[in-house]
Design a protein that fits this description.
13% of the residues are buried. The protein has a single domain, classed as Ecotin (Immunoglobulin-like, Sandwich), CATH 2.60.40.550. Strand 4 and strand 5 form a beta hairpin. It has a four-stranded mixed sheet with strand order 1-9-5-4, with no helix packed on it. Strands 2, 7, 8 and 10 form a four-stranded antiparallel sheet that branches. It has a two-stranded antiparallel sheet with strand order 3-6. It has 159 residues and is an alpha+beta fold. The chain is built from one helix and ten strands, in the order H-E-E-E-E-E-E-E-E-E-E.
Length: 159
């Protein structure tokens, strides 16, 4: 009985310590500056995290035509926090929408779409021990996608 109680208390203490660590780590990430918003995602613990990558998808819901491809101006930059060594991600954008220039038929209705930063596809290291913190201008939405390796590995051939 004592052994079981010890295991339960130890497990709870370890869990609370992990939760406490995430809160402590948030001290490294200052509040957003005026006109900016701090977005935080706490990745869940996964097996073989070294094989995983995180895609940070930044965009806005915008009314656009259904013919052209649209994108937002701006950049997503990884910045190392001095004194901590943790990464944070900063978006610089004016929120301007651009796109291809295909002619739209008269009377074509616009639709609400999630439009992302142009050429932003970047994969970052997955680490469940640290929050992923992204600073964006107000009005932006941040989404996260976890990339996993395929079980099938293919060989290349000389050519």
């Amino acid at each position: 009985m004592r052994l079981l109680l010890g295991v339960i208390i130890g497990t709870l203490a370890g869990t609370l310590t992990c939760i406490g660590q995430v809160k402590d780590y948030m001290r490294a990430f200052p509040p957003a500056e005026k006109g900016m918003v701090r977005h935080v995602w706490n990745p869940p613990v996964e097996n073989n995290e070294r094989n995983l990558r995180v895609e940070i998808i930044v965009g806005k819901n915008v009314e656009v035509d259904q013919v052209n491809r649209h994108f937002l101006d701006g950049t997503l930059t990884e910045v190392v926090i001095e004194g901590w060594g943790f990464p944070k991600y900063v978006v610089q954008s004016k929120g301007r929408v651009g796109g291809t220039l295909i002619g739209v038929a008269p009377g074509e209705t616009e639709v609400m779409k999630f439009v992302t930063l142009r050429d932003q596809r970047q994969l970052f290291r997955y680490n469940s021990r640290l929050p992923v913190v992204v600073y964006t201008p107000a009005g932006f939405i941040v989404r996260f996608r976890v990339w996993r390796p395929d079980k099938v590995v293919m060989d290349g051939r000389p050519g």
